[in-house]
Amino acid sequence: MVQLLGICGSTRKASLNRALLEALAAVMPDGAALAIWEHGLDLPIFSSDAAEPARIGELKRAIAAAAGVVFAVPEYNYSIPGGLKNALDWVSRPPAASPLRRKPVGLIGAASGMSGTIRAQTHMRQILLYSDSPVLSQPEVLIPRAQERFSDGRLTDEPTRALLASFAAAMVAFVDGDG
User: How much is the pTM?
Assistant: First the structure.
């Protein structure tokens, strides 16, 4: 069984990116599953002078236990949300022991604008260079006008569901070394 971990970069309870992760979990291929990190990213600001919060240890263990990680990346001001960047700063320390070190990563994202999450995902790829995390290149899941594709927090758009199924298959192959 290929076990992936899904992490939503949004702190909103009714986040379309959270709904996108749930839709991805529903289309995982046989022999694979996506567990969604349920504890959120509301964490103290990273400081190398501060002790690591217990929840960061939990997040690190969850990432380490997963074969790969899928980040649902919202776009805020042409970049990733501050809470997601802060979590990545915590998880990446110490660098040699980071559970993201060489961990296969997939990126998905939904936004209300016409560009989807292309700029945020590009920035996320740049950040993940630090941990030497390989990132799945194709298919890209950059959902524009996401509010038109969901109803009551559930994906209703069949082409988007098909794209997620293609992404899920590609991510499993990527993690298995076949992609």
Answer: 0.97
